[in-house]
Amino acid sequence: MSAFAYLDHNATSPLRPAAFDAMVEALQAGGNPSSVHRSGRTARARVDAARRQVATLIGARPTEVVFTSGGTEANNSALVGAGRKRVLVSAVEHDSVLKAARGMEIMPVDGNGIIDLGVLEKSLAGSAEPALVSVMFANNETGVLQPIADVVRVAHAAGALVHCDAVQGAGKVPVDLRGLGVDYLSLSAHKLGGPAGVGALAVRNGAPFVPDRLGGGQESNRRAGTENLAGISGFGAAASEANSGLATTEWRNRLETALLEIAPAARVHGAGADRLPNTTCISMPGVQAETQVMALDLAGICVSAGAACSSGKVTRSAVLLAMGVEPSEAETALRISFGWNTVSEDIERLIAAWRDLYIRVGHSGIAQARAA
Ligand code: PLP
After folding, report:
1. pTM for the whole structure
2. pLDDT tens, residue by residue, 338-364
3. pLDDT tens digits for 12-59?
4. 306 Cβ inside 6 Å of ligand 1
5. Given the CA of residue 199, which atom of ligand 1 is nearest to it?
6. In terms of domains, do 262 and 216 share one?
7. Is 302 in the active site?
8. Ligand 1 close to Cβ of residue 346 (< 6 A)
9. pLDDT tens for each residue of 195-215
10. Which domain holds residue 365?
11. Which one of 46, 91, 126, 198 has the fewest CB atoms closer than 10 angstroms to its CB?
12. Residue 43, phi-psi category: left (phi > 0), alpha (psi -120 to 50), beta (remainder)
């Protein structure tokens, strides 16, 4: 049995050995892809190869892929670069979308976290100002998949452009730029086993794009700055491997069935919607998420509480609140996410530790709440 079970792939996925090897090779070779001499040409060839690998993952043309410093930058630059004054987003977007544009209009979601297409349609019809609609492919906390093709149909009919944050979907389920019909699509390497600090924005050929980084002419004038050669090489290798090993629902179903048997009052958030096969967001009745995370950590299991916490502090999940979950229940939600190096023993270990904790704390917690 491994030293610990890492079940927090939606926060970051461990570096795949193939990505590590590609990065070491690129670091050793070095070179600036803009240089015309042989060292530059070799570096350029690595960037081009990675661009093809990333493009293949999302059914894009290599010329449509713009490398960035990660998903956050990709989201920020799409929201600004589309050049639309009016921006409509779903209530469950990642902060890198929600905080990227001023005065954006927030579209409500239903109890499963799915955007209300009727409200979107009405809002778009309510103004002649050309808009950008930004809706994520899959939610980072619940794994709930949005009906992107329907969003595109409604938005394009109203003359709006569409951005999709596919950071959590790519590498886990098929994501196809052309099939979805979106104009912009964001990716992040570290969510699929590549390094942190590198990502991409796919800009559909013909979609307007005003770069927010000015300087050299890198990335066909769409993102200035010398390319992160090692990071991009690692991203390409990870994208290529992720593409051939997409997740299945077997372990998620096993886990959810077992946890609901242990605690029938537990609730899987977004269970009524299509979800990523690697993600479970579940509330253990009566037990604060922070307590669960700490207890599971002591048992050698890494999972997240509610929203991933950038400052080390756990806050109540805005995603669950937008879905209408009571604050007291949102505080008990745990996010479990599998990935490329997960083995079935990890799942069994989590089930056993969750059972122990529930017997120790959950029952008494509920009893106390009832007695109060
Ligand atoms: N979008 C979503 C849905 C995410 O989950 C994350 C990371 O948590 C990001 C964007 C940001 O990506 P990055 O960490 O590469 O900046």
Report:
1. 0.95
2. 999 999 999 999 999 999 999 998 765
3. 999 999 999 999 999 999 999 999 999 999 999 999 999 999 999 999
4. no
5. 15
6. no
7. no
8. no
9. 999 999 999 999 999 999 999
10. 5-13+246-371
11. 126
12. alpha
